[in-house]
Amino acid sequence: MNRLNNISYYLFSLIPIFFVSGPFLIDLSLFLLTVIFLINLKKEKNFNYLNNTYFWFMIFFFCYIIFNSLLNLDNIGKDNYYFYFRFILYAFTISYFLKDVKFIETFIFYSVVIIFLFTVDSFIAKFYQKGLFSIPHFNKYRLSSFFYDELIMGSFFLRILIILNPLYLFLYKSKQSLAFLLILNIMGMFLIILSGERASLFLFLIYILLNCLILNFNIKKKIGIFSVLSSIVIIFLIISPEIKERFIIQTFLQEENFLGNHIDLFKVSWKMFEASPIFGNGYRSFQFLCYDEQFYINGKQFCSTHPHNIYLQLLAELGIIGFIFIMTIFLFFFYLFLKSLHYSFFKMQYIHSNSLNFCITGIMINIFPLTTSGNFFHNWLNCLYFFPVGIYFYLKKNNQ
Predict the structure, then answer these.
(1) Is residue 89 part of a domain?
(2) Which tens digit of pLDDT belongs to each residue from 72-105?
């Protein structure tokens, strides 16, 4: 048993590094952690750990995916939809191992190392065209650092901060610790800006704004935090022609705006939804059906692995029923946010800890409807999506 605990400790600690390595290692590590988690539950005779509303809600969602896939076998290719079940267990696995403080400490340590390493590499690349280990620019508007030709650095650091912030605030509460956390968020925002990912910067600023509204800080501190972060964005836009070009000119001033080809993908997904509004066209079917002439836009074909919006993807692939499942989760956390906002503004009470508030807003941002997004069913993204859900479970169990 001690051997299993040691294995789980190293697997958990290295999760931030596994995320950078790509989908295989992070998925493998979380799968192995889940196996150890289930072994521990069996030894402890504690399967009631899984018996809660979230588990059964997600089981219904998983059963619906199976039903939907069987209904649309001709449309879904060879995707192994039955493996989606592992993500439901990942949230419980994370929650279970967080009860050991040393797991949290080492996870935070490696997350900080990753942030510093990427910051140094990106800073060098910005001014010398090549970063550490001679990693070149992807192009002059977008840096990807150790992700090479995968333009996901901004999305990754948005979501690693969503994971890091509640864990850090759970353990460390001194003024010096809070100042260091602010520095980490500034560095993360620096990386998001250099990545050129407009959706990630938009979501990060919303994330900070939402937290400034409900965190248990005095008003001066809240205004100061948001002002500092906003000022840094403005300074970058002023001093860097490439950043200004990417975030201002290409976004608002060009004839073809920042959504560009995404608009046509949105239209394709809506056509798919209209073709099968109740059940959709099948799990991960967008990438196959977009070649069908009935879904052309103005006689032209527009294809991708996904339509670049979570909710349009759900409508196209799983229909209104699948859409309702995920929208219900978003609305639940939005309700928790509004409840916290109401108490903090009108009753001067803080009903949630700062760490739990960060967790609530983070989950909202991960499934925020009004922005472009990655493939909802991509395993790398799902690992990032379900991690803060596990943190939420842990904090709720500890009355945070």
Answers:
(1) no
(2) 877 666 567 788 999 999 999 999 999 999 999 9
